[in-house]
Amino acid sequence: MRLTERYSKETGREYALRMLKDNIIHLDLVPGSMLSENELSSEMNLSRTPVREALIELSKVKIVEIYPQKGSAVALIDYKLVEEAIFMRNVLECAVVELACKTAGEEAVMQLNENVKLQEFYLENRSPERLLKLDDEFHRLLFHITGKDQVYQLMDSITIHFDRIRSMSLIAVKDLKTISDHHAIVDAIAAKDGVKAKELMEKHLSRYKIDEEALRKEYSEYFL
């Protein structure tokens, strides 16, 4: 499991939750793998209590399965849960990208374009983890420039099932359209074309369906 430094005001539970989510999303903790409270607490230099609390929290969103008397495991991927996450993102992100067309100024468009250029760089240099973080940042920026930061935080806390699919797509899907989608979305925002921007976002978020066959072939053991 890969670990990053604990933030200065981060509680043990918050740190354990962040580390577990990050490692599950990036497939360092693969679907179906068992999770030992003792091993996790030792790796993160925490007591078992915050680790157990983090596992319980993740079980509430069905990303971790807890088996009484047996332990815990990373949940297999359930495409029904992925589709629910996509439904939420589609509703919220289509609305926010339309709003961005009305409110985004030159500086905001420049920030988005800089993000997409970095995505191109890390795609060429085969850094899927960094690319996923930039993808997250691109979507976060759309909410930030429209003054909807809290909405993004709520959405981000629930869509972890989709995040695993996104992470897998960066590795398994050869003809990745994500960055070209982002380019087109920024162009629509710069042109203040809300109809086009919404259409592009819907297409962008629907790609998980196109990628499903490739992902199931590459990672068949990870799915229900």
Description:
It comes from Lacrimispora celerecrescens. Keywords: DNA-binding, Transcription, Transcription regulation. One of its GO terms (molecular function) is DNA-binding transcription factor activity. It holds the Pfam family FCD. By secondary structure, the chain is mainly α. Helix content is about 70%, strand content about 5%. Strands 1-3-2 form a three-stranded antiparallel β-sheet. The longest helix has 25 residues, at about 80-105. The protein is globular and about 60 Å long. The two termini are about 25 Å apart. The model has no long low-confidence stretch (mean pLDDT about 95).
Q: Short summary of the structure?
A:
The chain is mostly helical and 224 residues long.
Secondary structure layout plus pairing:
Elements: H1 12-25, E1 34-35, H2 37-44, H3 48-60, E2 64-67, E3 71-74, H4 79-103, H5 106-124, H6 128-145, H7 149-158, H8 160-172, H9 178-190, H10 194-205, H11 207-218
Antiparallel strand pairs: 1-3, 2-3
Helix pairs in contact: 1-3, 2-3, 4-6, 4-8, 4-9, 4-10, 5-6, 5-9, 6-8, 8-11, 9-10
End-to-end separation in angstroms reads 23 Å
Order of helices and strands: HEHHEEHHHHHHHH
CATH topology of the largest domain: Four Helix Bundle (Hemerythrin (Met), subunit A)
What strand line-up does the widest sheet have? Answer: 1-3-2
Our count of helices gives 11
Strand content: under 5%
Helix and strand composition category: mainly alpha
* Largest pleated sheet: 3 strands, antiparallel
CATH class of the largest domain: Mainly Alpha
Helix content: over 70%
Shape: globular
Number of strands: 3
Kindly provide the radius of gyration, computed on alpha-carbon positions and rounded to a whole number of angstroms: 18 Å
Mean pLDDT across the residues is 93
* Poorly predicted runs: none
Count of domain modules:
2
Report the CATH superfamily of the largest domain. GntR ligand-binding domain-like
User: Based on the structure given, which CATH architecture of the largest domain is correct?
Assistant: Up-down Bundle
